[in-house]
Design brief:
By secondary structure, the chain is an alpha/beta fold. It folds into 2 domains: 1-75 and 150-245, P-loop containing nucleotide triphosphate hydrolases (Rossmann fold); 83-148, no CATH class. 33% of the residues lie in helices and 24% in strands. The protein is built from 9 helices and 10 strands. The chain has helices spanning 40-47, 69-73, 91-101, 108-117, 133-145, 163-178, 190-194, 214-221, 231-239, and strands at residues 2-11, 14-24, 29-33, 55-60, 63-64, 76-79, 151-155, 182-186, 199-204, 207-213. The strands form 2 sheets. It has a 6-stranded mixed sheet, sandwiched between helices. It has a 4-stranded antiparallel sheet with strand order 2-1-4-5. Helix 3 (91-101) packs parallel to helix 5 and helix 8 crosses helix 9 (231-239). The two termini are 29 Å apart.
Length: 256
């Protein structure tokens, strides 16, 4: 569903992501983790086609994000860490807009199920500006699910959600993966994403430290290769001292 081939991104001479290659298949739930400034959000924004890569190739469901942007974007959904809704539109109008943008027909029944699942029925006629942070997050997720994307990317998806909302989104992520979607979750809440993820991508200062399944990560980084080591333990051991092992993050001559 997703392939990154030697992907790199730099901003005004500073490298955000360097030479990243990986593949995410149907049914995979990938945890994209790393310290602040590791390049996680930059990577997802490039996959979504919001910003262009500096080099390399990105394909979504076989479509090149740069050369076939409409085909690629129509098959993915990206929920950023702070979804920007239209303040004046109601919850219902957001779903209507999403269905129109992605040319989804007979979407109303699915929208009703999503509204009920995320406890938004009684808020459906409220404008986005009236909603809490958690409710806006739920609206964004409902809109993302509406067109059955093959790749779903969630950046800090649990921010602002109450315990019931967290349980709901975790359940729906599992369901989406079982239905054949590839899911990428970026979050600092490692204990929460550990329950969901089949694979792990660790970035540090734009470099790939590890890519593989959780069993491989534990074998490589956990003390004694402990099979029951937490994702948090793996993360800290993987990133410990990593900053000193890489070349500078600047491009010679300040290339863009």
């Amino acid at each position: 569903m997703l392939t990154l081939e030697n992907f790199a991104k730099s901003y005004k001479g500073t490298i955000a992501v360097r030479d990243l290659s990986c593949t995410v298949n149907a049914g995979d739930v990938l945890a994209l983790v790393g310290p602040n400034g590791a390049g996680k959000t930059t990577t997802m924004r490039c996959i979504a086609g919001i910003i262009p890569p500096s080099s390399g190739r990105i394909t979504v469901a076989g479509f090149d994000v740069q050369r076939q942007p409409v085909d690629a974007k129509s098959r993915l959904a990206y929920i950023p860490d702070d979804p920007k809704l239209f303040d004046a539109l109601t919850v219902d109008e957001h779903l209507d807009f999403a269905a129109s943008a992605y040319r989804v027909h007979d979407w109303q029944a699915k929208a009703e199920l999503l509204l009920a699942r995320f406890e938004l029925i009684e808020h459906r006629r409220k404008a986005a500006i009236e909603l809490s942070r958690g409710m806006r997050q739920k609206v964004a997720i409902c809109c993302a699910y509406l067109h059955d994307p093959r790749l779903i990317m969630l950046d800090e998806p649990l921010t602002g959600l109450d315990p019931r909302g967290i349980r709901t989104i975790k359940d729906t992520i599992v369901e989406q993966a079982r239905a054949g979607a590839a899911v990428i979750i970026s979050s600092h809440l490692l204990q929460l994403v550990e329950d969901l993820c089949t694979n792990l991508l660790i970035l540090h200062r734009g470099h790939r430290i590890f890519f593989g399944d959780l069993a491989q990560a534990r074998q490589q980084f956990a003390a004694g290769g402990a099979a029951d080591a937490s994702l948090e333990d793996v993360f800290f051991r993987a990133t410990e001292g990593a900053a000193t092992n890489y070349p500078p993050t600047t491009v010679p001559g300040g290339a863009p």
